[in-house]
Amino acid sequence: MLGHTTALELRLAAIQAFRRFPCTADRSVLLQLYSSSQEDPEVRIAAYQQLMRCSDQDVFEVVKTTLRKETSSQVGSYVWSHLTNIMRSEDPMKQALIESLPDDIISRDFEAEFLKYSSYSDNTVSSGMGITNVETSLVFSPKSFLPRSATANLTLYFHGRAHNLLEVDLHVENAEALLKNVFGHQTHDSDGESVAQSRKSQSKRRQEDKKKNR
What is the block-wise mean pLDDT of the chain (214 residues), using blocks of 10 residues? Predict the structure, then answer.
């Protein structure tokens, strides 16, 4: 998981496997990955996500310190948006986390541009059906202008129980090359059509000029 020679997809899968581990499992490797500014932003964000599932005061201290000196806009924006949303969340399952968060954990602010920087959102709605919570995450990479992953989770609280209705986890790889090929062909075809029309117009003008000169 720490090896940079390992494929990014395998490293992310190894980090996400911590979801199935109890909170008593050693998570020191996640702390190391998240706090290292030399790591890939996707790896750092994934490590942060798993750390916050079983967070304690030691984790909060690392988050506060790392956020203060953060050099990655993607990581900083995600962590900032996550903490900001969590602290004002009305999700019943997050109340214990909210109460344990230090007041000064957000040691620095970051930009919140939805289609440019990685972000997290949390929205809770109460109705006659119960309480509905929707979580979304969007993770970008400095290597791409497209998001690398998008997740969504829909939970309904009914009669005091939580029901996970929907969970979506999408990962995008090499989409830039595909888009460039698609738009590249469209541009080429459009240019080709324009050239043909131009040549046709020039030929028509020559024929008209010849008729006038006769």
Answer: 80 94 96 96 97 96 97 96 96 96 94 88 91 96 88 93 93 66 50 46 59 54
In total, the chain counts a number of residues equal to: 214
Question: Are 43 and 10 contacting, i.e. CB atoms less than 8 angstroms apart?
Answer: no
Q: How far apart are CA 89 and CA 109, in angstroms?
A: 18
List Cβ neighbours of 1 (8 Å cut-off, separation of 6 or more): 11, 14, 15, 29, 33
Q: Is 138 left (phi over 0), alpha (psi -120 to 50) or beta?
A: beta
Q: Which residues contact 164 (CB under 8 A, 6 or more apart)?
A: 153, 154, 155
Predicted model pTM: 0.80
Query: What span, in angstroms and rounded, lies between the C-alpha atoms of 147 and 150?
Result: 7
Task: Write the Ramachandran bin of 153: left for phi over 0, alpha for psi from -120 to 50, otherwise beta.
Answer: beta
